[in-house]
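thread: overnight batch results

M.L. [08:02]
morning all. the overnight job finished for the chain we discussed friday. pasting input first so we're all looking at the same thing
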Amino acid sequence: MKSCDWQKAWGVGLAVIVLYSLFNWALAVTDPVESNYALTAKEMLLRGDFLTTYIYGHPWYDKPIWTYWMLIGSYSLWGINDFAARFPSVIAAGLSAALMYYGMKRMTDNSRMALWSSVIMSTFLEFWYISHGVITDQYLFLFSLGTFVFAFLALREYSVRYLCLAYAMAGLAVLDKGPVGLVLPGIILLVYLIGQKQWKQLRLLFHPWGMFVFAIVALPWYLYMYHAHGMDFVEGFLGLHNYIRATISEHPEDNVWYYYIVIWLLGTMPWGPLVGYGLWKAPKNNLYRYALTWSVVTILFYTVMATKYMTYTYISLIGFSVIAAMGLEEIWSGNVALRRRSYGLLVFGEVLLLAIILVSAGWKFLPDNHEALLLMLMSVVLLSIAGYRIYYRHQQAVTALSYAVAAIVSIYTIAAFLLPPVMNSRSGAELANAYTMKPSDDVYFYGKFSASYVYYSGHSAVLLTYGNKPITDVWAIGKTVMPSEHPSKLVADVYAGTYNADHPAYIYVRTGDVEHFKQYVPEGRCKEVQRLGKDGKDWVLYKAY
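M.L. [08:03]
and the structure it wrote out:
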């Protein structure tokens, strides 16, 4: 690639890092997912153990090591805070944008398609959302993108060097997410090559050098964990968090066939029409078929899995970004009327629809921020009108689409500014800061636990479980890794004199669970201390003694 192409690649990547870092310092770590990653990395850092993942003082086998290493590195650089917790995903997003530009330039030798595939990918709604998360998925996306790019180059050029790079990327994906980092790309490549009847390339796919590179990258940590923890690691990681997740739904209400179709419609906003146009009009060459196979097989693969999460099909955006860029290239080469219609569809269609959806949601959940929401809508409309007028006068579709991107960036920047109160409502940060406790005080959560409270406060806590029936659900057993006990144990400790006015027990209770909680703890030995959350309606803090 030419030096100017490298500058564009890193320029797009740096722009993504800067824009997606905005307001991250104000976004609290949320429950129930982000807090597990943030707390585990914090415990590992404080323990000085950078190989075994720990939570609540014992090994935790939910995910492999890579994301925790990134979090530990960020904590070491920035301190343990909200910005540091979100910074690794932002870096992965910027690297993904740069790698997409590099990959498309190498695959097509078209700088324009490379630029727009990177810009489109980086401004998909799902990409923006996950790039702000304290989760594993943005690094999985980065490494899967590397596998996508280098595997295609390896097959096209019959290159063992590129194949080794693809296997190295798959190895990093396995270090980040588990076996799916190799299994899913492997299935995609097999389907593509068999469909294309490329038997020579099929043999290349199993080249021993590629497998050797994969083993060097991925296996050492897994071998260490097996050596250190034996079958507990195998049963916890491969058993519960991989095999059981694939066969027994963690969230049965989401196990419907159309789940990922809805996710696709939302996740590809505001470029959905352009993706659709690319699927319809883009030339059906090898790159198109490869990208389509990547995206469709990903969606089908997770559709047949029992457990469904909105992030599972995230890597399908890689193929859809390429197809959208190919569709955009067809628009460039089309007639003026076609370009005008396409711009109107993009800007006055989905870009405006995205703004209206976010403004409507904000109007309901953020009643104190109506001015900012109206500013978002006005900025999108004005940028859209300005872009169309410039296009109409000069017939420069690139300039017009640049205004569309500016409108999208405006939406996301204001949305990031508006997110803090929403994130705080799903976090234990306020609970940790609202009431001062002594380090020796015992803290309980009734019914619903907050790992983010433990993360922010540095204070251990115990879950008081509902009911008298033993837990039998496999997911309830597997996910209940925090200290837990029945409320009757707390009551017995109160009457036994374990707790008194100088050494009380503190219990956080959701307002909806207050009446149920009072059935266990006698009113005379338990008093309300404080109400917390939005207008004091989310949590009630009790003191028992």
